[in-house]
Specification:
- The protein is α+β, with helices and mostly antiparallel strands.
- It has two domains: about 35 residues; about 90 residues, EIF_2_alpha (Alpha-Beta Plaits, 2-Layer Sandwich).
- The protein has six helices and four strands; from the N terminus they run ααααβαβαββ.
- About 15% of the residues are buried.
């Protein structure tokens, strides 16, 4: 019995030593940077600000407006967008009216379905909602051609329908893109 206790104590000490060794290695990894002296020009925009700039551009804000918002030059905004740009895709502004109802009077879940759908649209398509209690949504869908846009919108409607069905609800929606004259 005492042999087992001694072995446990020995293993605990070994475990502590290994933890210390791992921490030392992590510290070495974290302190090693590309530029150890931190020399050179500092970045004017953080990664978060770059993402915000991309979003403002998708929302059709002008380069000048964005430059004024971040208090930087127009050239820097151009350079930032060019360097962080994926292959050029068009972005469609999609307007949607959405109604969610329970399948029958004995089930509940409309609120959870609406929250889940809004979370999905906000995360994937930068959804906006004018009235917090309203049923009208605007979201932005990147696409290459009309066929790609149709597939993406049908997939989004399918996701919303599955979420509603999962919670014993159903949806009715009117989805349209006025720019392209499409409706679903």
């Amino acid at each position: 019995m005492s042999n087992l206790k001694d072995r446990i104590i020995e293993l605990e000490k070994e475990n502590e030593n290994l933890k210390k060794y791992i921490k030392e290695l992590e510290n070495k990894l974290n302190t090693k940077t590309k530029n150890e002296r931190n020399a050179g020009r500092k970045k004017k925009l953080s990664d978060q600000e770059i993402e915000q700039i991309k979003m403002y551009r998708i929302q059709k804000k002008t380069i000048e407006e964005i430059a004024q918002m971040f208090n930087v030059s127009v050239g820097l905004i151009h350079k930032t967008l060019k360097n962080n740009e994926k292959p050029i895709e068009k972005v469609a502004k999609i307007e949607m009216w959405l109604r969610i109802e329970n399948n029958n009077k004995f089930v509940r879940g409309k609120t959870k379905v609406r929250e889940a759908i809004e979370r999905y649209l906000r995360f994937n398509y930068k959804m906006e909602k004018q009235d917090p209690k309203g049923c009208e949504y605007i979201f932005y869908v990147p696409y290459k051609d009309a066929q790609d846009l149709e597939k993406t919108v049908y997939d989004a409607i399918g996701e919303m329908d599955m979420e509603a069905d999962f919670r014993n609800c159903f949806i009715e929606c009117d989805v349209r893109c006025d720019e392209l004259g499409l409706s679903w």
